[in-house]
Amino acid sequence: MVSLEWLNLSNNQLDGNIPEDLRYLPYLTVLDLSDNDLEGNIPEGLGDLYNLTELDLSDNDLNGNIPEDLGDLSQLRELDLSDNDLDGNIPENLGDLSNLTELDLSDNDLDGEIPVELVRLRNLENLYLSGNADLEGCIPVCPALSGDGCDRTIPAELGNLVNLEQLFLNDNELTGTIPAELEDLANLDALFLGNSDENDDDNGPDSLVAIPVQCC
Fold first, then answer.
1. What are the Disease resistance R13L4/SHOC-2-like LRR domain coordinates in residue numbering (predicted)?
2. Segments making up each domain of the chain, as ranges
3. What is the pTM of this model?
4. Would 1-88 and 115-216 be classified into the same CATH topology?
5. Over its length of 216 residues, how does the chain's per-residue pLDDT go in tens digits?
6. CATH T-level fold of 1-88
7. What DSSP line would sit under the chain, residue for residue?
């Protein structure tokens, strides 16, 4: 088992906690435990699986915080933690996952502000943060500052995610205007901001009209 590279136990009726002993599978590249009845916290030891390229724990009953050591998975390309009961803040060091192409944290109970460090994910193609009712409205553009000294709007730096194809921020409590720099996202074909508080006023980029936007 120690040489195992691929483990897919999805769509079963597994329950209980995720075994912490999975950390002792150092050659694992794909771990898919989605669509089960797993509960409890995500074990922090998963951050030791340095060869992991895909991690899918979606559609379970997991709770607690997202472990910060997931930010150590430097080879990770796909991270799906959607449809659980995860709470707390999104770890800032997820912005260190430079190979990440898909990040899905939708439909949880995450709160706090979306970390601006995510704009460092230059290979990111799909970003799903929808359905987190307490994920708050402001993305600090200048993370070195705090309090009233920081611009609390959707950061223009999102325009640096040149490979982004889908951006889901709907069903949150986001505020502010849509930055014109999103016009630079030439590969973007879906932008969802529905049920947020962004303003799509005359200051917004005209090119967004061609993108399927919900209730902006």
1. 55-196
2. 1-88, 115-216
3. 0.72
4. yes
5. 788 999 999 999 999 999 999 999 999 999 999 999 999 999 989 999 999 999 999 999 999 999 999 999 999 999 999 999 999 999 999 999 999 999 999 999 999 888 878 888 889 988 888 888 777 644 444 333 223 333 445 666 677 777 888 777 666 656 667 777 777 778 888 777 665 454 444 433 333 222 332 322
6. 3.80.10
7. -TT--EEE--SS--EEPPPGGGGG-TT--EEE--SSEEEEPPPGGGGG-TT--EEE--SSEEEEPPPGGGGG-TT--EEE--SSEEEEPPPGGGGG-TT--EEE--SSEEEEEPPGGGGG-TT--EEE--S-TEEEE--BS-TT--GGGS-BS--GGGGG-TT--EEE--SSEEEEEPPGGGGG-TT--EEE-TTSEEE--TTS-GGGGGS--S--
